[in-house]
Amino acid sequence: MTGIKKKPARVAIGLGLLLGGVIVLSAAMGVVRLPFVQVPAVIWEKLWGRGPGDALASAIIWDVRLPRILTAAVVGAGLSVSGVVFQGILKNPLADPYTLGISAGAAFGACVAFFFNMSYFQGLSVGLCAFAGAVTTLAVVLYLSGGTAGGYSSNNLILSGIIVAAILSAGISFLKYAADERVSVIIFWLMGSFVAKTWMDVGISFAFVSIGAVVCLCFGRDLNLMALGDRSAASLGVDVKKSRLILLAAASLMAAVCVSVSGIIGFVGLLVPHMMRGIVGADNQWLLPVSLLAGAVLLLCADTFTRAVLPSEVPIGVLTALIGGPFFCYVFKRQFSGKQRF
Amino acid sequence: MGYTLKDICFSYENRVIFSGISLEMETGGFHGVLGPNGSGKTTLLDLLTGHLKPENGNILLDGRRLDGFDAGELAKKCALVPQDFRVNFPFTVAQVVMMGRYPHLGRFSAPGAKDRELVAQAMAATGISDFSGRHVTELSGGERQRVVFARALAQDAACLILDEATSNLDIGHTLALMTLAADRVKNNGLTVISVMQDLNLAARFCRSLVFLKNGRVAAHGPVDEVFTASVIKEVFDVSSSVYFDEIIHCKQVTIL
Q1: Comparing C-alpha atoms, which of B110, B97, B185 is closest to residue B143?
Q2: How many Å apart are CA A317 and CA A303, to the nearest integer?
Q3: Contact, B157 vs B192, CB < 8 A?
Q4: What predicted TM-score, i.e. pTM, was given to this entire model?
């Protein structure tokens, strides 16, 4: 019993250091290769408001690369935490941030924006429409699953999510069909990308993801208890309905912002929680922070790979699915074969 | 004191379960709840734990209305061993038992020495210490049920509610857990309310019995008074012969 598992703390510290290292490394990598030491130098300059030592390097690192890198890291973190929460609430290891149709809602919103060629709010209209689509979808799913007996039970939520997502994807297909030559823009957006992200994207995603993550971290224990089933959780002092609603809202908002900023990036929210559960165990108090860090590292690595290593850029959503899919098969086979049969 | 139910009404959607039952279960007793399938046994427990709210009537716990407790407060007074228990995530046995301590911990405070000791005691009492490091997803049904029992013991509540808590256990572990519960009733003033299927087990360990049928109390009282062939005939519709067993010194029944 002594020291149940101190391992998670070490894993978390290790991942934190790794994240810092990867940020610096990836900021130096790219079409223009820069020495690694220049990255901290530029950040130092900017933070203290000094004039640039090297204007070109400063512009490349500060204005072009860092916004994209930080957005990728924040989105990776947000999707992973959201994935842990969705799996916990729905008591289903196969759930991910998109199970409730958040992605379909965001995609539909974005399609509408593209379809009507919206260009208000300095190019933010697509993101705003995507966010509105995701939030509306969540509201509809909650409405559908809440009224019936056993309000917000995992079966109700999953079913409602599937129904709403099916309707929305038909809507997306219709918009694509009707969009004629603009269909390529829609398809490209749907595949996800961190190209040309600005500090504004970093700020928006960071604000939402950090608030959402803090809420989720506060409910780590409740999430553990909810895994035991509603009856047990209630008998252990959890207001199941309220906690579930708060967690759902926090996790969905994180996912919605991530999708609005970067398009649909699959597999991160499914894969990271599984990998981390294999390493630190199922206790959500550790699983949440560790997944947050691991998700940031993973998505940043994937984005750097497509940006700086591949000869020409592959959409990040395609890449994560191409790498994540087979890897998930491996993890799934190893972790679950023979262990979880019921 | 203990639980007092006054004119409780409850129904699911359009199926009426209780239409005005009243019941009293005193502190420090071992109460058995018996009845055929669908007679409302689990619903009764759900009402007692506050998981379901009655449409009408009052439930008092130690003289205080149940809906006046907040969930955390109630969790310190009343622990539940549910009927089915399935976890899809690989928590270790020790982690699950430690969850019984959560109601006593602050949101972020780590478990202290007392918590760890209670968890270790609960695991020892239920004989699961040997596999405290295993994942609950890998356990058999009976092993899992003992883990849940240990978690409820670790919760250290004055009232233990058992919903067919021994349904998956072999006879050895069944007797061990029931004896454990009965000892705590006798020595520590624990209140146990247990839904059971096995009439002989109920007669052996409980001090008072509640027979439910079709959402009403068919009989309620000390075992000696209500454990009779006529009550069993009325509730379960089977003929039986009730006798006093000289070896274990309690009433037993043979179904004819």
Answers
A1: B97
A2: 10
A3: no
A4: 0.89
CA atoms of B253 and B239, how far apart (whole Å): 10
The total number of structural domains that make up chain B: 1
Q: B-chain residues within 8 Å CB-CB of A281? A: 90-92, 95
Cα–Cα distance for residue pair A291/A141, rounded to 1 Å = 26
Lowest-confidence range among A70-74, A149-153, A221-225?
A: A149-153
Q: Could you report the per-residue pLDDT of B54-64, keeping only the tens digit for each? A: 998 899 998 88
To probe the interface with B, which of A153, A219, A235 has the most B CB atoms within 10 Å? Answer: A235
Place domain A36-334 in its CATH homologous superfamily. Answer: ABC transporter involved in vitamin B12 uptake, BtuC (1.10.3470.10)
- Residue A2: the pLDDT is 39
CB contacts < 8 A, A to B, total: 97
| Residue-range definition of the domain harbouring residue B104 | 3-255
Nearest to A282 by CA among B98, B151, B121, B114: B98
Contacts of B10 in chain A (CB under 8 A): none
| pLDDT computed for residue A120 by the predictor | 64
Which of A92, A221, A238 is nearest residue B88 as measured by Cβ atoms? A92
Nearest Cβ partner for B103 among A237, A339, A342: A237
Contacts of residue A216 in chain B, CB cutoff 8 Å?
none
**A293 exposure class (CB count in 10 Å sphere: 0-12, 13-18, 19+):** buried
- Residue B53 maps to which CATH number? 3.40.50.300
State chain B's maximal CA–CA distance in angstroms: 57
**What does the pLDDT read at residue B67?**
87
CA B8 to chain centre: 20
Count of residues for chain B? 256
Residues of A in contact with B85 (CB under 8 A): 228-229, 232
Single-letter code of the amino acid located at A223: L
Which candidate, B186, B185, B202, places its Cα nearest to that of B194?
B202
Q: Is A330 helix (H, G, I), strand (E, B) or coil?
A: helix
Strand partners, B242: B253
For the stretch B235-243, contacts whose Cβ atoms lie closer than 8 Å and that sit 24 or more positions apart, written own/partner, are B235/B34, B235/B35, B235/B36, B235/B211, B236/B36, B237/B36
The predicted-structure confidence for B125-168, as pLDDT tens digits, reads as follows 999 999 999 999 889 888 999 999 999 999 999 999 999 988 88
> Chain B contacts of A221, Cβ < 8 Å?
102, 105, 107
Tokens 């408001």, residue located: A49
Helical H runs in chain A? 7-28, 38-47, 55-58, 66-89, 102-115, 125-146, 154-178, 183-190, 199-218, 220-226, 230-235, 240-262, 268-280, 284-304, 316-336
In this complex, do B95 and A283 lie within 8 Å of one another by their Cβ atoms?
yes
Q: Strand pairing of B208-213 and B56-61?
A: unpaired
| pLDDT, tens digit (0-9, with 9 covering 90-100), for A101-153 | 888 998 899 888 888 877 665 567 888 888 899 989 989 998 888 765 566 77
Nearest-angstrom CA–CA distance, A248 and A137: 13
Q: Which of residues 153-192 of B touch A (CB under 8 A)?
A: 155, 161
Q: Structure tokens of A201?
A: 């994207």
Q: Kindly identify which residue of chain A lies nearest to residue B78, measuring between CA atoms.
A: A235
